[in-house]
Amino acid sequence: MKIFLVIFDTLRKDHTGQTYGNEWIKTPNIDKFAKDSIVFDKAYPESLPTIPVRRAIHTGIRSFPFNHDMIFLRTDDYESSPGWFPIPPYQRHIGEYMKYFRYTTSLITSTYHQFKPNMNFHLGFDQFHWIRGQEIDKYRINLRKYKSEINQHMISSKKHRAIKKYQRIILELYFRNIQDRIKESDYFPALTFNKAIEFIKDTKNSENTFSFIDEFDPHEPWDPPQKYLDLYVDKSYSGAKIINPIYSENLRGITENELKFLKASYAGEVSMCDHWFGQFINELKAMELYEESLIILLSDHGHCIGEHNILGKIPRCMYPELVDIPYIIKPPGGMNGPKRIKKSYVYTHDVLPTLFGFLKKEKADVFDGIDLSIFVDGEDQLINNRNYITCGYSTYTLYKDDQYALITSNDESEQKLFNLRKDPEWSNNIAESNADICKDLFKKIVADARGDLLLEYKILKLEELKDLYHQKVFKMGK
Question: What is the pLDDT of residue 73?
Fold first, then answer.
């Protein structure tokens, strides 16, 4: 069987075209793909952001509640948040599992956080390929100043000097990385999927192949080719072309029109990603490999773009625009779909157990996720008590079921509660008048965390964790 796992970083569920009810975002290739697939309506990451999500996908083991994996190694990575660590050495990687099952494996990714010092996400793959230059990847050194390019994309506000300085630093590094970009085939989704197509051609005659395709777009900066931007931008707009959001809880520094342009830029990125995903699918069909391939498409998280007055990914603001993700599985042979699963909540760490299910392998004991392949033949149903989810982000946790959503700090000092049946937009915080409900829901969070919620985040010394590398041994299926 040919297996393809495709991740788009920062792809919002509500921007994934008609498949998820959006009539203005143009994603015709994903929409067409969904008609051959199972579509999950209630899909979520089990933790945030980028690296914790991928650790769970690669291992089938939850990163949340983070206390058990406080691994700090020598690195120059500026990112520092709970769960932002390498996969622990005693946890087996997805590439290793698939290799054990005699699959030829490939990891192709432009998600540069994975190839920072010590991250080691490529362990076990027969082939790995880094697509360099996303965001502020340490890819190109060019001391030329990109003043004119940067000035086009700076907020117009003259007050917020700190914001503008940060924005300038990010854009300077980014423009260094993309200095040689000329045509659309030089953009990251094109590079990623063209490399994936190369792997398909190289292994066409191999019966069992597994390709992990991890594309960092539509992560910011949002600067798609003009033809995609033209689909969404106001043609009369003549202001600053904002392509990189400044994370904020009050939209400070950005004007209403600049925000509209930012939203159009994100939409353009989504349509560009859809186009190159379509090129990949078309190539599979041309080589007569599509029909019998297993293809899983999902995202790690979304991004707030002005909703709830939020820009960015902020732990205390785990609203739907951040946590709702697309999750689509095309089984071998396809189906007359989309077949929608609406009753059960599903997670990103269900991916690996689901692969085991399709391969008819016994689920490994270490997996926290569940096998979603049962929905190929089974009807929409509630499985394994999946009637709610918990998602951790730093020292905050989201609880969500069909009636309530609770965003809470892990020490319970800050809480937002929403009655989703009366308030589906998450607009009215009723926590203060419903302390008993908050308490009951928080108990479920504590249970999911096995009583070990992270209350503060501090850097530990490696010596404190020296036994971690010696005290556990993994065995296949254990």
Answer: 67
Residue 471 lies in a domain: no
Q: Which structural domain range is residue 37 located in?
A: 2-140+182-237+246-387
Asked if 45 contacts 7 with a C-beta cutoff of 8 angstroms, the reply is no
Beta pairing partners, 107 = 128, 212
59-115: pLDDT as tens digits = 999 999 997 655 666 777 878 789 998 888 889 999 999 999 999 999 999 999 999
Residue type, 242: I
Is 173 a domain residue? no
CA-to-CA dists, residue 217 to 30, 57, 236, angstroms: 15, 18, 27
For residue 210, which phi and psi values (nearest 5 degrees)?
A: -130, 125
Q: CB under 8 Å to 406, separation ≥6 — which residues?
A: 398, 399, 400, 415, 416, 417, 418, 431, 438, 441, 442, 445
**What is the tens place of the pLDDT at every residue in 290-302?**
999 999 999 999 9
For tokens 């996720």, what's the residue? 369
Residue type, 74: R
Cβ-based neighbour number of residue 152 at 10 Å: 13
* 166 in any annotated domain: no
- We report the CATH number of the domain holding residue 80 as 3.40.720.10
pLDDT at 88: 85
Displacement of CA 434 from its chain's centroid (Å):
32
With respect to residue 360, please indicate whether it lies within any of the assigned structural domains: yes
pLDDT digits (tens, 9 = 90+) for 385-409: 899 999 999 999 999 999 999 999 9
* Residue among 185, 174, 222, 211 nearest 10 (CA): 222
Q: How far is 2 from 295, CA to CA, in rounded Å?
A: 8
Number of domains in the chain: 1
Tokens of 317: 């603001």
pLDDT at 339 over 80: yes
CB 249 within 8 A of CB 310: yes
Q: Under a CB-based contact definition with an 8 Å cutoff, are residues 338 and 49 in contact? A: no
